[in-house]
Amino acid sequence: MNTPHAPHTPPAQHPGAPVRSGIPEHGRIPKYYAAKVDIAALLDTLGEGQPLPAERDLAQRFEVSRETLRQALRELILEGRLRRLGRGTVVAGPKLAQPLSLASYTEGVRDQGRRPGRQLIGLDRFPCPPVLAVDLGLSAGDPVWHMERVLLADDERVGLESTYVAVERVPDLDTAFAPDSSFYAYLHEELGIGFGDADERLETVLATPREALLIGTPGALPMLLIHRFSRDTTGRPLERVRSLYRGDRFSFTTHLGPRAGG
């Protein structure tokens, strides 16, 4: 019987690693976790996009069963260290660090040297329901747009965005706006609408079967969901946005300052 070995403590240059590499104080760790840490160390020696050795070879190398190895690989995929490519598994690149700010998705991705893009799923116009009317400062029944787009980074599908905005604010959205471009840039440059402030709520969810199909991910993959309510520079409600991001490809950053009176 194989005896699980304690993984090495991550070096100091990995400040985001778990304390003591996730080993509990009693020192007993599951075999899959020991294999996971060993594979993670192997990934550090490989470059982005490099294929992982075959499961059989890895199982022999780390002295674990194929099923134990697969559990370790599943966790590394969920964490974004690995990704499936065809019938194989390759080393994933670093996560996209999207700022929690009024900057657009396009700006955030471009700032990291990636090529942003969007693929239109649907653009519909319908009478605004009462709940949405409150958010957008409208009367129930006023016309509203719903625009749904897949988010891309270097042609990789990484999220899904749903935008609700009053037709009176952007009457020509269906004819004058290029759906693969930045909506914020269109509002500012073409319509002279500036963003003043916004409220956001961030939570973790699982994608619905439809969302997983559109984004191209397994249904069990954790997703990061952001609800945003934006206002223009006059304080008037502007948009409601629901953005779903792949948990294995995104992290979010923000700057914190001292609280007034604290």
TrEMBL record:
Keyword DNA-binding part of the UniProt annotation: yes
Domain HTH gntR-type: 27-94
Classification via InterPro entries: Bact_HTH_transcr_reg, Chorismate_lyase_/UTRA_dom_sf, Tscrpt_reg_HTH_GntR, UTRA, WH-like_DNA-bd_sf, WH_DNA-bd_sf
Residues of the signal peptide: none
Transmembrane segments: none
Keywords: DNA-binding, Transcription, Transcription regulation
UniProt cross-references to SMART domains, sorted A to Z: HTH_GNTR, UTRA
Record bears the keyword Transcription regulation: yes
Region feature Disordered, mapped onto this chain: 1-24
Protein name: GntR family transcriptional regulator
Origin species: Streptomyces ramulosus
